[in-house]
Write a structure and sequence with these properties.
It is built from 5 helices and 6 strands. It is α/β, with parallel strands linked by helices. The protein has one domain: Alpha-Beta Complex (Ribosomal Protein L13p, Chain: A), CATH 3.90.1180.10. It has a 4-stranded parallel sheet. It has a two-stranded antiparallel ribbon with strand order 3-6.
């Protein structure tokens, strides 16, 4: 299954991907930087900056800055990743920033699923959040 993350709410996208992975299917997510996080931009940035400033730079906790890694970590949080079932499911997940060049070679590329629904609240794109964390992309 290929999921286009453009204008999809990150939590809903992650929960759909997690349930599909636990069923045993492969999931490929493209355009990870265009996923959205709902809420006021000030509170979203404040939350992520608090997480970033925890601990120490040498000993962690370490926070990913790239959108594909952030989305992958969100999906991991919705799985039993410490058990073999969850570890095997995470091996079936691929997350890409943008659209990969070898899109035609990916199995099932003809059916790209979009999970977009109209959002009436404030939101931020995952790309904006990651740039505020220090992502250079």
């Amino acid at each position: 299954m290929i999921i286009d993350a453009k204008d999809a709410v990150m939590g809903r996208l992650a929960s759909n991907a997690a349930t599909t992975l636990l069923k045993g299917d492969r999931v490929v997510i493209i355009n990870a930087e265009k996923a959205i996080v709902t809420g006021s931009p000030a509170s979203i940035k404040g939350k992520w900056m608090r997480i970033k400033n925890l601990g120490s730079p040498q000993h962690g906790p370490f926070l990913h800055k790239a959108p594909d890694k952030v989305l992958r970590r969100t999906i991991r949080g919705m799985m039993p990743y410490k058990k073999s079932k969850g570890r095997d499911a995470m091996k079936r997940l691929r997350v890409f920033t943008g659209t990969p060049e070898n899109m035609n070679e990916i199995k099932g590329a003809e059916e790209i699923i979009s999970l977009t629904k109209p959002v009436r609240s404030n939101f931020m794109y995952l790309e904006e959040i990651c740039k505020s964390l220090g992502w250079a992309g």
